[in-house]
Amino acid sequence: MLRSDFHFELPDELIAQYPLPERSASRLLCLDGASGAIDHRHFSQLPSLLREGDLLVFNDTRVIPARLWGQKETGGKLEILVERLTGTHTALAHIRSSKSPKPGTRILLTPEQGAEPCGLELTVTGRDDALFLLSSEGGPALSQMMREVGHMPLPPYIERSDEAADQERYQTVFAAREGAVAAPTAGLHFTDALLNEIATMGVQRCTVTLHVGAGTFQPVRADNIEDHRMHSEYIEVDEAACAAVRETRARGGRVIAVGTTAVRSLESASQGGEIAPFTGDTDIFIYPGYRFRSVDAMVTNFHLPESTLLMLVSAFAGREPIMAAYAAAVAERYRFFSYGDAMFITPANAQESA
Fold first, then answer.
1. pLDDT digits (tens, 9 = 90+) for 307-319
2. pLDDT of 276-289, one tens digit each?
3. 150 and which of 40, 146, 157, 257 could share a cystine (Cβ 3.0–4.6 Å)?
4. What is the pLDDT of residues 86-133, one digit of tens each?
5. What angle do CA 222, 224, 226 make, to 5 degrees?
6. Is the separation of the CB atoms in 57 and 242 below 8 Å?
């Protein structure tokens, strides 16, 4: 299957640059993958799509202020995007600068782009493929440094600097475990009030953890999608989540993943056929032809053209229904990507998610 099979035209003005004032005020496009039927609703109406006995699976990762600004001792400016904390004082990171820093380079951090150094510094200790190894040894913990001078790592298609409001809005209300450099955006639409309403219906809830990495924005460059090398991300699916999935299936309920990160977590833990606890890295790449084992429906935002996440939802609901739904979303002026609107999707073939 070709990358170009997942291309669509998107007017720039439909890319949401800010969230709506109310989280659950976003729109919700409902797609029945089996029939291709499309229904336009609002996210606050999600409870009407749920049934007693269903299970919502959330990703409880918390976004860290992973974007840092700094300069070399020579004065050269650079930008750091922490990909993963590997220890109290160590991390893997992307570094953007006019000239790649060599091992031993000291980086003097600044609170803002182009500002004067603030007294905090990092040292480049090596490379791991495209990533740089950083250390704050001899100084504060890296997590503390990020809290002091770090910025929320808004996606590249949000063409503005982060603002104070993003500290709260680019975070789900149920975020608990620090480690992501991008939000699990399908969860951004939920409020505490909506979660309570859903709970009173007898809909169950559990969490998994996937620390979203910057690789989620990595474009597919291979013409044949099977040649794409998927990035790795850290996940934890514990026994409580596995038991919740098994019990839901046993009582005839649906397992509804909130976001593609929850889908990737559940499916990574189900590669043996039956879902089982899993802790570690996953590089699962889901594209059309994949047989889903643990997901019966999903809530998801809209994804970039030719992206691995668009391929994932196409595997679930069918490429043609998804592309038709995206065309409808563009025609109806839905808001796209992280701060945009959402979809509720059921599978193209019920047996594919059995």
1. 999 999 999 999 9
2. 999 999 999 999 99
3. 146
4. 999 999 999 999 999 999 999 999 999 989 999 999 999 999 988 999
5. 95
6. no
Angle at 202 between CA 178 and CA 245, to 5 degrees: 55
**CB 277: neighbour CB atoms within 10 A?**
13
Spell out the residues 6+ positions from residue 273 whose beta carbon is closer than 8 angstroms to its own.
Answer: 293
Number of residues in the chain? 354
Beta bridge partners of 354: none
